[in-house]
Amino acid sequence: MYFVTKELYFPPVEEASFEGVLAVGGDLSIERLLLAYKSGIFPWFNPDEPILWWSPWERMVVYPETFKVTKSMRNILNRNSFTITFNKNFKEVITNCQQIERKNQEGTWISGEIIDTYTKLHDLGIAKSIEVWQNNTLVGGLYGVDLGHVFCGESMFSSVPNASKVAFIHLVTYLKENKYLLLDCQVHNDHLESLGAFEISQETFMRILKN
How far apart, in Å, do the first and last CA atoms of the chain sit? Predict the structure, then answer.
């Protein structure tokens, strides 16, 4: 496993471990994060532990061009019970992603440093958010890193049923309208799969990323 130094460098993603860990250590500087995302790598680690840099062999993704909204979600969208905004309350979204309780998960990987760093990325126009409102209250949303042709989703939250699903659908719709090639959902989980995400090989993902 590669141990990150002060040099802005990551090894080829093909050197990732079986679990998908490519490197350990380093920092969360803007320059290093941008290099990581552009190289198909993302940070994911527990607070108070060394930074782990990942590039899984199987990548959870959505192709915006072929994404289909389920009938049940179309019905929910047609009720117009939510108001959607784009990139208006990034700090509140990422803070909620940190604080929301998740089933079968203890704590969160979103530390104060993560919030500070990704908020700086947001200020640079690179990290973006979608907000879902109900009766003027923020009830769901998501955030991620926008590479221009690939959007790297980081986390989502929902405090009422279906709010995160609504955010997800609006994101994919935005990506499709703006001709993005891919929504990167990083690693498999059942919630993402229920939304229509699926796994592709690391090789295929990198080919699209480098397009």
Answer: 27
Q: Helix, strand or coil for residue 97?
A: helix
Mention every residue, 6+ apart, whose C-beta is less than 8 A from residue 52.
21, 23, 24, 43, 44, 45
144: nearest Cα among 130, 160, 157, 131: 130
Label residue 2 exposed, middle or buried (CB < 10 Å: 0-12, 13-18, 19+).
Answer: middle
Helix (H, G, I), strand (E, B) or coil at 204: helix
Instruction: Note the pLDDT of residue 81.
Output: 92
The pTM for the full model equals: 0.93
Q: What is the pLDDT of residue 162?
A: 94
CA–CA gap between residue 35 and residue 10 (Å, rounded): 8
Neighbours of 5 (CB within 10 A): 9
Neighbours of 183 (CB within 10 A): 25
Distances from the Cα of 102 to the Cα of 59, 78, 105, angstroms: 22, 28, 6
Q: Which residues of the chain have pLDDT under 70?
A: 102-108
